[in-house]
Amino acid sequence: MIVLKSEREIEVMKTACRISAEALKKAGEAVRPGVSTAQIDELIREFIEKSGATPTFLGYNGFPASACISINNEVIHGIPENDRIIRSGDLVSIDLGASINGFTGDTAATFAAGDISEEAKRLKDTTEESLYEGIKAAVPGGRLGDIGHAIQSYCEKRGYSVVREFTGHGIGTNLHEDPAVPNYGTPGRGVRLAAGMTLAIEPMINIGKADVRKMPNDWTIVTADDKPSAHFEHTIAITSNGPIILTKCG
Ligand code: MG
After folding, report:
1. Residue 177 Cα, ligand 1 centroid: separation in angstroms?
2. Per residue in 43-57, pLDDT tens?
3. Backbone dihedral region of 218: left (phi > 0), alpha (psi from -120 to 50 degrees) or beta?
């Protein structure tokens, strides 16, 4: 069931989303060679708690950290570790959420550590651009398939593939709500989009094949061909005036 939010509820939700965005910005600034993923996670937890919010991911389905930090061939759900040290050239994807006032924000971005290859940079940039293509399609009267199609066509035209096993999602009082928001689709198909929908749109894009597999830790998803992947995410609200990005700083 899709839960529509009132304008007032969207206003309240903005706080959780702003804290999420600020935490992600801080985390991105800390990404550099020599830093462990656990250090970045700690910084995220501290920032969210200092802001009066709760790290949504901590304990969610048993997840042991405040953020998912996924490097290179890791697509999503990387577990921060003390001995996982970021190296120059790494693509570091950070996904986090903050909850406050009964609502949740969810946002992710891929950051470059030190000098990354042209190939990696192009993947990162294309994935981010595709997120904004998806957001542009999130208008009242449109269809869910319009969002997925915008992302898919943007990335596939540039030679990348779209992960299919994982999708974006509705979000609000819960981290994961209906509908699932695939990063692929057919224009004009799927659920009709309406003002009051709040969605986490999150393209996960691979340089190589779309296939992924789960690591033995039962969390981390990696590309089946071990080639790099990138991930960007915003929580947005569909309003009568079109989409607004809630996970923005300031
Ligand atoms: Mg999400």
Report:
1. 10
2. 999 999 999 999 999
3. left
Partners of residue 212 on adjacent β-strands: 223
Q: 186 CA distance to ligand 1 centroid (A)?
A: 21
Q: How far is the CA of 168 from the centre of ligand 1 (A)?
A: 6
| Burial class of residue 7 (count of CB atoms within 10 Å of its CB; 0-12, 13-18, 19+) | exposed
Tell me how far the alpha carbon of residue 200 lies from the centroid of ligand 1, in angstroms.
5
CATH architecture of 7-245: Alpha-Beta Complex (3.90)
Mean pLDDT over 162-177 rounds to 98
Taken in order 135, 238, 45, 177, the sign of the CA dihedral is negative
pTM above 0.90, yes or no: yes
137 C-alpha vs ligand 1 centroid, how far in Å? 18
Q: Is the dihedral of CA 131, 129, 219, 58 positive or negative?
A: negative
> How far, in Å, is the centroid of ligand 1 from the Cα of 82?
24
